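Dear support,

I submitted the protein below through the web form. The confirmation email said the job was done, but the results page showed an empty box. After a refresh the structure appeared. I'm attaching both so you can tell me whether what I see now is the final result or a partial one.
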Amino acid sequence: MRRRHREIGGTILLFPAGNLAQSCLKQGSPAGRANAGEAVFAVSTHFAYMEGRINAGRRTSGMRLLLVEDNEELSALLVKSLEASGYGADAVTTAVDALNVLGSTHYAAVILDLGLPDADGSTVLRTLRQRQNAVPVLILTARDGVNDRVAGLRAGADDYLVKPFAVEELVARIEALLRRPGQLLGRSLELGNLVFDTVGRQLFIDGQPHMLSSRELAVLEILLRRPGRVVAKRVVEDQIFGLSGDVGSNAVEVYVHRLRKSLQDLSAAAAIHTIRGVGYLITAT
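What the results page shows now:
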């Protein structure tokens, strides 16, 4: 059953026709008590008011997520919430689009709904794993049965979260996925005399704070998460721009050049190397 939804006082309400009172009262929602003629799933979100409460002023990191959700209004709200938490996010609404995008674009993680209009989300998951694509996948669905959870995890999901949910928990689960061995998340990244606080979006050199542009910081984060390893230009491009299409042919080179110059001017003991035709790597000097 497809569900409508709206946001009331920082709460996303998802509802078909039916009795709202019982489910909303269980969630403790004043909005639910005021609309007892409708059924609801209440999902706490920090889009808008939570943006100021959690990590005020936080800028986008170099980590980009893909959201696969067919409810376009809900998808838009979740993208805003993820961006408020410091992530870049792209969204698609069908299984076909998800597989096409994942076949050409690199993401740090995928948030996957199961009830897609053209195929079950588990098909996307199985196809990814058959392609040897190990991107972390978190299933986000209203299917709350134990058998559903077991099936999702056995199909290759890394985590499973049931609607309704608090967006703070969704973000915390993504962070936990990316902290796992072999994944990319760390709160503090160090190289030479350089320390980058990925939460506060602050660069320190010899203990002194320095300001860089958000794009420079995004490139720096991508490289620092893979020190001494070549990062393909396409990976940098995907992580920064995703599906926005707002990228010129030399945009990555421009940001890398600016970052390299900034680090040199600040006497950072780290150097960015260009491997022509391949990508970039950062090393201590």
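Response: this is the final, complete result; the empty box was a page-load delay. DSSP finds eleven helices and 15 strands in the chain.
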